[in-house]
Design goal:
The structure holds 2 protein chains of 2 kinds. By secondary structure, chain A is mostly helical. Chain A is 71% helix and 3% strand. Chain A contains 13 helices and 4 strands. Chain A has a two-stranded antiparallel ribbon with strand order 1-4. A two-stranded antiparallel ribbon of chain A has the order 2-3. In chain A, helix 1 packs across helix 12. Chain B is 73% helix and 2% strand. Classes of the chains: A mainly alpha, B mainly alpha.
Chain lengths: 353, 583
């Protein structure tokens, strides 16, 4: 009988928000209906839809890896590490040089698994170093400052990293030498899947399990959780708060570095600006899943990846909108706006009092 | 005796000095690898003596060596001996030199150009002062050591002697950076002889540098020695005299502003016009960020709305095809702006500071992508944008070209500054202030925070849209590529540099961050790197900005805060956000 209760006072703002909600729902339903009914004449085969979903899962698992970095840092410092996308970019860039070197030495051809492991490790370590330095130089001195101060610092750090890489390596987009081992398709349960996408998903899942184990079962993880609950009390219990925070950044960096390599497996190129969009999208994923929540970040990443891959076509082509793929970033940003406005605590997060 | 009175262990100072030197050396390596050293080498500070490229490295070493001589306050002991301090500076120089020489060796031994394209022979030549081989390494080392010695010597001086020296050096640097501006003005005034006496090959000539140095040294010395007495005498003047002096000064500034474009010529008027637009945007964002405390990273959305609305209404070839007069269109643009501000503002109002920043960033990007998309090409023209925007017309005069457009922009900047100033000191401004300091308390004292936030967004949007409208008529065409996040970042950076909530700060910030890179092509390439540096450095060193607003300054220095607030900040529990949790 809940709806029989006296309704809460409806404010003007509440009214606007409800109008927003209804408009979104109407838009989504009408768009999907128009597309699926084929009224506009643009249709996609079932295989086409399936490929979109698989692509969405692959890019979603990359977003999830990056999102974990946001979530870990937010969980412990309550700040958005705006420069996390650039940490990811640093890893991808290092991966580029290592991949070129490996290809020249012929290691990639002779032993692809070893090659990929070396690639992953070098990128992860670079990203980790960048993340730890960032924390030490830019964030640690500001831990007591008002909230906006570290955020602005993070924006600045993001610019510095981006344009340092541009200065050092030039502004061009570089094509990545992909080993043959990750090209082509494999069949799983009768479904042909691009090998690169399969590797991405497997690697991402392994890393996420490793992280979950680390946070839940190890001593380091316990001190991280303790610091995120209450820094002062954690310090009294003998936890080195500074070191724990640095560890958190390091772990976030490791995951972002791995994401950098995996991202390149799918998109095949590196550039100094490549961190911005995946960074924002991964942040969206983190919020979507409930920021501070590890499993939430994984789910959020997958959801966003699939929505972004399927969404533009599903929602827009029914209305006869041309070149819907141009608008995929609009879907991601709209998700960001909608989630933050209507459910800022995410799918799995607790509602704040 | 207590620990405080013991002198600092010299080994501790020296260890720190070596570390600082290594950091300075690495900074030099960074500047080289990023390409700043070689790129800036084409610009001279003092022609023939000090090119800017190597000077960037030198300044890093100077600062580090100066800091090395001053043990941190929290070591809490008596001043170390003078000799130790000097040794520390020297050691810093040596360490930095060592790092740089190792870098040179590495560049010489391995060809790193595949990975670091900027490690060219040209760079090596610059760093080794143009001398080949080991002699060059020695020269670099000697340079670093002498920089250390200079910094050490500076530190030995009494502060009142030191300040004029530093001011004079800074003035020489500033004067040389003003070269494109002043040189242009001199040529405009047909003072070619003067121009070539002061500047040669983009830097100060040696006699000009000496004159600038001595003049500033004298003025600054007078100020440090006799400044207090002079100020007292000015304060003792009768009220009327002081007021009329202020009026005369204002009148002179106004007169200068009016004749300025004719002094400057077309190119500089263009640059100053752009700076004016950024001042206008800065004033607007300052209301949102500085007064109301809402960090808006999507400010470019309003700029874009203003530019496109103007283009749609005034261009005869736009999809509306109205071809309206600019002054007729402007009120409509302003209304559209306020509505956009409210539409974007309303849904995001309940969000906390950092979420608000990200959502507004999202809005800004959505606007840009939509403008760029093929889907909306029939309305907004896609990537080509909208062409043939006519200039504003006053009477019979078409305000085309930078010199004519300077005047309406100036008028709107003055109007904008006046509005912003009035708002800040009104009931509304105080409400924003209260809201920024503590939203819940503000609400409890009867401030309708929703309305005041919306008002801030709407007014900020109007400023942004007016800037956008002038941007559209200034270049006569609008297209989405230039309306990206970087505009928002630029405006944010200039506010941060000048000081949040400070109108003077916005003006200073716009001239430094927008004007300088337009003039110095060497800077333009590293513009965003510099913005990033400005954001980080200001937040770490001087969060209230260069020309701070007084209440803001108090807010950001927590020495003045109550013990309770300090405690909360230290513990960091005021956020109440969810912690890492497993399901």
């Amino acid at each position: 009988m809940r709806f029989l209760r006296r309704p809460e006072r409806i404010t003007r703002l509440g009214l606007i928000l409800w109008a927003f909600r209804i408009a979104i729902i109407v838009f989504v339903v009408a768009g999907s209906y128009a597309t699926l009914s084929g009224a506009s004449g643009v249709v996609l085969s079932p295989e086409g839809w399936r490929d979109l979903v698989i692509f969405g899962i692959a890019q979603g698992s990359i977003y999830a890896l990056i999102a974990l970095g946001y979530t870990l840092v937010y969980g412990i410092l309550f700040m958005i590490n705006f420069a996390h996308g650039e940490i990811f970019m640093a890893g991808a860039f290092t991966g580029f040089f290592v991949a070129v070197a490996l290809a020249e030495e012929g290691i990639m051809e002779a032993n692809p698994i070893l090659g990929i492991v070396i690639l992953l490790l070098s990128s992860m370590i670079t990203s980790m170093i960048v993340a730890v330095l960032l924390e030490r130089i830019a964030y640690r001195p500001l831990r007591r400052a008002p909230r906006l101060v570290p955020l602005i610092t993070a924006i600045g750090a993001s610019l510095i990293l981006q344009y340092s890489f541009r200065g050092i390596y030039g502004s061009g987009v570089r094509a990545y030498p992909l080993p043959d081992a990750i090209q082509g398709r494999v069949e799983i349960l009768g479904i042909p899947i691009l090998r690169s996408q399969l590797i991405v998903v497997i690697a991402a899942v392994c890393l996420m399990f490793a992280l979950y184990y680390l946070v839940e079962k190890t001593r380091t993880g316990r001190s991280m959780r303790a610091v995120s609950e209450d820094k002062e009390v954690a310090a009294l219990m003998g936890i080195n708060v500074d070191r724990t925070i640095a560890t958190t950044f390091a772990i976030g960096g490791l995951l972002a570095g791995a994401a950098g390599v995996l991202y390149v497996f799918i998109f095949n190129q590196v550039s100094f600006a490549m961190g911005f969009l995946p960074g924002i999208k991964a942040f969206t994923a983190a919020v979507l899943g409930g920021i501070g929540n590890i499993v939430g970040a994984m789910l959020g990443g997958l959801t966003l990846g699939i929505l972004e891959s399927v969404g533009p076509f599903l929602l827009l082509s029914g209305f006869g909108v041309p070149s819907t793929n141009q608008l995929r970033d609009v879907i991601a940003f709209s998700m960001l706006v909608i989630v933050l406005i209507f459910r800022p605590y995410g799918i799995l997060g607790r509602k704040e009092s | 005796m207590s620990d405080r009175l013991k002198p600092v262990d010299p080994r501790r100072i020296l260890k720190r000095a070596a570390g600082l030197g290594a950091i300075a050396g690495l900074a030099g390596v960074y500047l080289s690898v990023v390409g700043i050293v070689e790129r800036f080498e084409t610009r001279n500070v003092v022609t023939g003596v000090a090119p800017l490229g190597l000077l960037t490295v030198a300044i890093a070493i100077l600062v580090a060596a100066y800091v090395a001589a001053r043990p941190p306050r929290n070591w809490g002991m008596t001043e170390p001996a003078r000799g130790h301090k000097f040794m520390a500076s020297l050691l810093t120089g040596a360490a930095a030199g060592l790092v740089l020489v190792l870098f040179l060796l590495a560049v010489g031994a391995l060809d790193l150009r595949d990975i670091f394209p900027n490690t060219t022979p040209g760079l090596v030549r610059i760093l080794s002062l143009g001398i080949e081989g080991p002699a060059g390494w020695a020269a670099l080392m000697a340079l670093c050591l002498s920089l250390g010695a200079v910094a050490g010597a500076l530190h030995q001086l009494r502060p009142r002697d030191r300040q004029p020296l530093i001011a004079a050096m800074a003035a020489v640097l500033l004067m040389s950076l003003m070269e494109p501006f002043l040189n242009n003005v001199f040529l405009q005034l047909r003072q070619n002889a003067l121009a070539s006496f002061i500047y040669q090959r983009s830097g100060l000539t040696i006699p000009a540098a000496v004159i600038v140095f001595l003049v500033v040294l004298a003025v600054s010395a007078f100020q440090t020695y006799r400044g207090a007495a002079t100020r007292r005498r000015v304060a003792a003047l009768p009220e009327n005299t002081r007021r009329s002096a202020t009026y005369v000064a204002l009148f002179l500034v106004g007169l200068l502003l009016l004749v300025l474009p004719h002094l400057m010529g077309v190119f500089l008027s263009e640059v100053v016009g752009t700076v004016g637009l950024y001042i206008l945007m800065g004033l607007g964002l300052n209301i949102v960020v500085g007064y109301a405390g809402l960090l808006d990273l999507g400010y470019v959305a309003f700029f874009a709305v203003g530019a496109y609305a103007t283009a749609l209404l005034t261009s005869p070839v736009s999809s509306l095809g109205l071809g309206m007069d600019f002054w007729m269109a402007l009120p409509i643009v302003i209304i559209v702006a306020a509505i956009t501000g409210i539409i974007i503002g309303a849904p995001v109002l309940r969000l906390r500071g950092d979420y608000l920043a990200i959502v507004t960033l999202g809005f800004g990007e959505i606007v840009r992508i939509l403008l760029l998309s093929d889907a909306l090409r029939p309305i907004f023209g896609g990537a080509q944008g909208i062409l043939a925007i006519p200039p504003p017309v006053v009477g019979d005069l078409r305000l085309a070209g930078p010199i004519n457009l300077y005047y309406p922009i100036l008028a709107f900047v003055v109007l904008g500054a006046f509005v912003a100033w009035t708002l800040a000191n009104s009931r509304i401004g105080r409400a924003w202030n209260a809201m920024r300091e503590d939203e819940e308390v503000a609400a409890a004292t009867g401030i309708n925070t929703t309305n005041y936030k919306l008002l801030a967004f709407a007014i900020g949007a109007v400023f942004g849209c007016v800037a956008g409208a002038f941007f559209a008529v200034k270049i006569g065409i609008v297209f989405p590529q230039r309306l990206d996040l970087l505009v928002s970042i630029t405006v944010l950076s200039l506010i941060i540099l000048g000081g949040m909530g400070s109108i003077r700060g916005v003006i200073l910030g716009a001239f430094v961050l927008v004007g300088l890179p337009e003039l110095l092509r060497e800077f333009a390439e590293y513009r965003l790197l510099i913005y990033g540096g400005v954001l980080v450095a200001m937040m770490l060193l001087r969060p209230e900005g260069l020309l701070p607003n007084r209440s803001r300054q108090r807010e950001l220095h927590d020495d003045d805060d109550s013990a309770e607030v300090q405690y909360q900040r230290r513990v960091g529990t005021e956020t109440g956000a969810p912690a890492i949790s497993a399901p």
